[in-house]
UniProtKB/TrEMBL annotation:
Residues 96-141 form the Peptidase M50 domain. It comes from the Bacteria. One of its GO terms (cellular component) is membrane. This is Peptidase M50 domain-containing protein. It comes from Candidatus Avoscillospira avicola.
């Protein structure tokens, strides 16, 4: 790896989480490290070079050399797979970590490009459909998923006094998906 950069947004998010509950912050950072290690292992095994890793408020971004659709699918699936495997292995020993790791995998498996689920879906679709159709499908997935998440977050907050965390999480996902929709 040539370069690692940490944005102020990542630092602010980590500080906010640490202020809220430092133990959860440590488990989250460990889960994030394992998740990204899964991606890096897959990239190494598929012989794709890593150019940069950026830690931002919306998560980690790994910039790589060009990949085939097969390589992209494998590398996208590897992060959530690592999260799920480690969550299962450590379930009895560290249930808090396992829950956080499973949550991280679930969020990353949503069909929102550029997240792992969206990348995997895009790679699979591009093997069969032209790019214009794939982009239309991905935009529809973004709209349906984000609308559903925002409605669910508002309902949780109103019905169960869940606080602003569900809405904050839905907004972060919406922002990441919105950035990608401009690229598609």
């Amino acid at each position: 790896m040539r370069r690692l950069s940490v944005t102020p947004g990542f630092v602010a998010s980590a500080c906010l989480l640490a202020w809220y509950q430092w133990e959860i912050c440590l488990w989250f950072l460990l889960a994030l490290a394992i998740h990204e290690a899964g991606h890096l292992l897959a990239l190494a095994l598929t012989r794709v070079s890593v150019q940069r890793i950026t830690l931002a408020a919306g998560g980690a971004k790994i910039q790589t050399a060009e990949m085939t659709y097969r390589q992209e699918w494998i590398c996208a699936a590897a992060g959530p797979a690592a999260s799920i495997v480690f969550a299962g292995l450590l379930l009895r020993l560290c249930p808090t970590f396992s829950l956080i790791s499973l949550g991280l995998a679930a969020i990353n498996l949503l069909p929102l490009y550029p997240m792992d689920g969206g990348r995997a879906l895009r790679a699979i679709l591009l093997r069969r459909l032209p790019p214009d159709q794939v982009n239309a499908i991905l935009r529809l997935c973004v709209w349906v998923t984000c609308s559903t998440l925002m409605l669910g977050a508002c309902w949780l907050t109103a019905q169960y006094q869940a606080g602003l965390w569900p809405i904050f999480l839905a907004l972060v996902l919406l922002c990441r998906a919105g950035e990608a929709a401009e690229v598609l």
